[in-house]
Structure formats: structure tokens, C-alpha cells
Amino acid sequence: MYLQRSASRARQREAENARRNRGEIVKALSIGEVSRRELFKWGIFTAGGALAMTNGLSPFAPSKVEAAVPTGAPRSPTFGVQPFTQPLQRLALQTPMPLTPRTRGTEVDLRFPAGSGEPDARRLSWHTDFTATGGTQHVNPLTGRGPMEGRPPGEYFGQQRWREYLPKKAYVMSLGCPPDDTFCFHKDLPHQAENKVWSFGAGRMAEGGAPPLIKVRYGEPVIFRHYNNLPLEEADNGGFGSNSQSTHNHNGHNASTGDGASNAHFFPGQFYDYHWTTTLARADMPTPSVPNVTNAAKRASGPDGKGGLVQVPGDYRELQSTLWFHDHRFFYTAENVYKGHMGMLNYYSGPDRGNEVLSDGVNLRLPSGSLLDWGNIDFDVNLAFSDAVWDQDGQLFFDIFDVQGFVGDQVLVNFAYKPYFEVLPRKYRFRILAAGMARFWRFALVNSANQLVPMKVIATDGNFLPAPVTVTQIDPQGVGERFDVIVDFTGMPVNSKLRLVNLMEHEVGQRPKQTRSVADALSGRVTGDPAVGAALEFRIVSQVASVDVPGVIHRTPTRDLSQVPAKLTDLIPIVEPTRVRVIEFKSGADSPRDPVTGECLPSCPDETIRPEFPYGIRINGEGTYGSVANRVSFLVPKPGEVEHWILRNTAGSWDHPVHLHFEEGRTIDRGATPLSAIERNSRKDVWRLGTNGDVRIQVRFGEYGGAYVMHCHNTAHEDAAMLLRYDILTDPNNPKNSQTHVSVIPTPNPTPDGVTYVTPELLPEGNPFHPDFEPFPSTAPT
């Protein structure tokens, strides 16, 4: 996968030259210096449109130097930097702005603080007002053309249930290029050049450093206002990435307008208001009666900031905890997330208060801290793991020609190279996110004697397990999956060290190869995959500084007051479904390009860069289709109906982490393959299919309507068209619901000059109203 350190200097130079040459091809195409026809004529691309297996272009091409070497890219240089020589950077906690309601005719707008310079947040996009003035007002201030808000106009993209879930706070952030020479993965590694990385910053200025962290609580809806502060010219991207962006709240229960994956990307100079409602799934359904459960009604709640609770409608078994947000610009997700468009979200509730000492019969008192009423993170730590590659100059590199799955050779934690983290001898909660592109991880914790240290898994994908599961190795973790674990450092001597070790080896990006032993992983014998081994070091110390209240010092406690209760939540039962769908993840799909114009909806990479889109999804044994934003693969006709889905991977040489937007599913089984102890009774939004694997899940959709997606979260597969759109219809008999979304809505088609709409196509195999629809297809196992 990567050249060994022992490869000759000639082979290293050869592979690096191939990488640079591919980058030059991309640059020349992007600025029109060369055409695809010319590249084909010169033999740089094959008749099928793929990059030619030519020495000097492909790192996998045979060479006169070392023709037998099967690996491709050279290893990323570390410039003498050793692992575990920089402290872990905590995620950058964001501060919200308060919002004040004000009436404008029949609308309720939200005013930002005086002097902020921010336009009001509105139910309908400012694009609506731009259109009404003939494009003379509310114009993009950077370009002088198009609307200032990228959210599409009119009721289709009006914020659903706006007054009911009226935002009280706003997080105003921008995505852009950090100031010159301010970002590096380690202080002794080269600083990243302009537009090699993009990062979020507060307000309208991008900053360098760690990804952001946003803390929200049930009962307090928020606006996430995202400014696109990226370069105006698409070619000014440092070699990869799109300057049009879209932010997905993974996996918030939000209307499609705020989901970030409804083909509503936006452009430099614009902002987009995402309405994050903190709604419990199925809030409109009657609160279920759960036998032998005390304080059931109080559990569906959020902290009020004064030691009490704010009740919210819905089922407490639907509460979530650890989420994240990232780019979801179709066809460019891998590049944009890899460059830095990502952050984490902690959701707080009555049971998951983030206060380990408050005892009210509802709060679970999980490790967190107690200086704040809610949301303490002194002992509740977000860990975002990703893998990266940099070239021989130390600059971040991405191979846009790779559609199988790009995996890096260097490990980052919170966007920093292999850090260490100081902990007290007490219990900690770690929220572990797999935030890479294609890599599967498998973590184990070992002490200085290389002995396994147990961990208690309490949540998967932000959903509590019914009870903690004690393991010495966490399950394989695909892109987008989260595991919340408790580690008890109590009794460990000060100055002792532990390491979190990745045991999952990759040989190619399309699937993991195997789980290695701890001895192998720590020995350095896994030469083919440099990311196997220790990724993060824990150091036991006697005091640490508080991040919740700066200036406070925490010392070794005489008594750890946090708890890990034997019961965390209750199960949502498996019931008979209204219908079954078989959803297969396959190769050999039709192209998303229009057969006449060659264009994609949305716009996709030049044919020279992405000559084909080999992946797709098949519903109920019918056609295999690649992603088209204007194609509805299936329809959810009525809120509250229970469906069972069989997620199927028919390829023995592939693995897919499959992500469902908007909703979680109860894991039922893996056919004849036993579920792991962590999977059993789990609720998730990402499922690892395994080679030739099936996973059966139960889903039930709720309050909001519109267009959502389901896809493989190997972002290279996703960007090569392994994604489908599904639409949810709202209940016309419920006056709270959007009456606009009782039917399938048109597809937005964004441009810098504004958004138009296109009439979508609905596939019959996914439409329960179609006479040929099979509610229990023959392709489903009995």
C-alpha cells in the first residue's frame, strides 16, 4: 500500500514524481490549459478514461528501477518528529450567540445581538427576498451576483416547524483557509501552504488548529450559520477539494433543510442557516409506556442550566449523545472532509447531563466533571481519529484518481499527529470518532507491559446501549461510526503510560485486511500499513488544568464520584414491519452523467479526473443505480410505519460502512453470523456490512419531510456514486407538519447566481404507491 522505508531512493523519487505529475494534470485541467481529448491523444488516459498505467504517472506502474515492488505512494516523511511529543489538542469549543424573536408580518424572525452585523435568521431563505427584488437586494457581498444565502428559496426549503422549535441560540462559523503559516500537524512538521487545509473559525474568519466542538442540549434548538469563506476560483484549492460546500449534521434528527445532504450546496461569499432542532425522533407519537421504569417521562428532557430539566416530547429511548458534522457536497465529500470540513457535536439530555455529581434519579452521572451545570468536558473527551498523507515537502496530499478508498499512512487525533494526553487516576469518558476517508479502525488499550486494559462501551453512534459492554478490543469501526467508552485509570501510578493501539490492517482502501495482534501492532512488523500501531498515548499525572473553568486545577481525587451504572437505557422492541426493503451495495451501476449532455446533477468532476462512477445501489432486486440528486430511489409514505431493511454486500472483495441519514435503526441480526456483544441490542446510523455480509435493521421515520440520503461512508465509494436519495412524506392530518412536504419536493440545482428547481424521478421499486411495488420482496430472506 505504501512503499517500505527500505525501498531504494530511486523508487521513492519515482513514486513521488508520479504523484506530482498527477497533481499537475489536475491543475492543468482545472484552469483549461489542457483538454481531455489531448490527454487521450497523448496516451495519458486509456480508452476507458482511466489513468494510464504509465511509469511517471501511476505509482503502481512497472518501472525499470524496481519493477517487482507492488506498492505505490512513498511514505509521508516525518522530518525527525517522534510520536507522542505533543499534547492532545482538545476540540475548539464554540460559543453561541443569543437570538431574540421579532415579528415581521406573519413571520417570526430571529435577531442577532446588536453590533454583530449578522442578518436575521428567517424561516424562509434570504434567497426568497433576493428573488422578490429581482436580484437587486440581499446580494452575495463577495461576488456581487447571486443571493447572500445559499439555502434554496421558497417553501420547499423553508425551516419546518419553525415556531415550535424556534432557535434560541446561533453558532456563527466560517470555513476558509487558515491565515498564512499558522497550521501544522505538529509544531516541528512543515506548516501547510495556502489552501492545503481548510478550517472552521468563529464568526467570518477561519482559524487554524483543532476541529470545532459544539455542545447542544435537548429543548434548546439552535441555528448553525455556515459562511463559505473559501477561494472564489475553484482552481485555487491546493490540488483537491470543492469550493462549494454543504454541512451535514450526522445524525441529528432534523428536517431535510438542515440535514445538509439535499443537494443544497452553496458557494463562496454565501452563508447557509441550518436549523438544528434537537428533536427526539417520533416526537409526535404517543409517549410509550415502558414497564418497571421509574422517571420515564422525566428522561425525555434536557438540562435547564439551573439544576433542573426541560421536558421535550418523545421517547427517552431515542436520546442521542455523540454526533459530528462534516461536508456533504455530492462527489466531493472525501476531499472536503479530508481538508478539514468537520467537527463534533455533543448532545446533552436529562440522563446524559454532563454533570457527574448531580443526583436526581434521572442523571446517569457518567464521567464528565461538575464545575458547570451541564456539559462538563474535563473528563469527557472527544477523540476524532483520521489518517493522512503528505508529500515529500510535508504538504497534505489526496489522490483524486483513487475511487476504491484512499487510506493514509499517518495517524491524526483531533487533526494532530500522534499526540499524548494527560489524565488523572480516575474514570474518563472518551467519544471515539472514525473521521477518515476509507480506513477501518480497531482499538485496544494497553499498558506499559503491553497488557490489555478493559474498556466499557456505553454507546454506539451516539445511542446508549442498554447496559455497558466490557471489552479489551472495540469492534471494527468504519468511517462515521462512534463508540463512547469508559476507561478507569483509578489506581494507576502517576507517571505510568498507556497507549491506544490500532490493530486493523489495510492492504487496500476498499476493505480492511485483518486484525493484528497487539504484539504485532506494537512491534513494527506490520510494514505494509504504517497506521497499525500506537495512535495515542495516555500519561497518568497528579494534576490537570480544567477546560470547563480555566484557572481551576484538578488533582488526584480521594474519591471518584462519577458512575457507570449497570443499566443505561431500555430497548426499543422489534415488531412486525409494514414492509421490507432489500438494499444492495454493488458495482456496475449506471453512470450519473446525462447520456446526452454528459453532465451530472449536481455537477461532478471532469471526465478526465472521474471517468466513471463504478458503484451503485439496488433496491428490491431491480436496477443498480449510481447517485443522481434528482432520482428518488425509495419513498417513505407515512410517518410512524415500521420498516425492516436488509443491507447487503454481495462483493467478497469489498466492505462498506453504510450510513442512514436522519434516523437510527435497531440492529436485528446478521443472518447466520452472530452479532458481537456491542452490536447486540444496538441502535446505530452506520453499519459495517462485511464482505458478502447482510445486516437486518428496523427503522421508523417521524416528523420531518423532504429529501435525505443513504450511502456508503467510505467517502471514495460515496463520491463515486454509491449513494441514493430517499424522500419522507409528512402526515397531512397533523397540523404541526409541513404541508409542503406531503408530496415529493423538486430538486434544487444550485449555481453561484441562485438556485432553480428540477422535477425528480421516482423509481417504481421504491414507491409503495406503485402497483408493482412488493412490500415483502422475494429477494428478502424469510
UniProtKB/TrEMBL annotation:
Organism expressing this protein natively: Rubellimicrobium aerolatum
Top-level taxon of the source organism: Bacteria
Residue span(s) of domain Plastocyanin-like: 629-727
UniProt-listed Pfam families: Cu-oxidase_2 (PF07731)
Protein known as: Multicopper oxidase family protein
Region span, Disordered: 98-152, 235-260, 733-752
PROSITE patterns assigned to the protein according to its UniProt record, in alphabetical order: MULTICOPPER_OXIDASE2
Residue spans of biased composition, Polar residues class: 128-140, 242-260, 733-742
Sorted UniProt keywords: Metal-binding
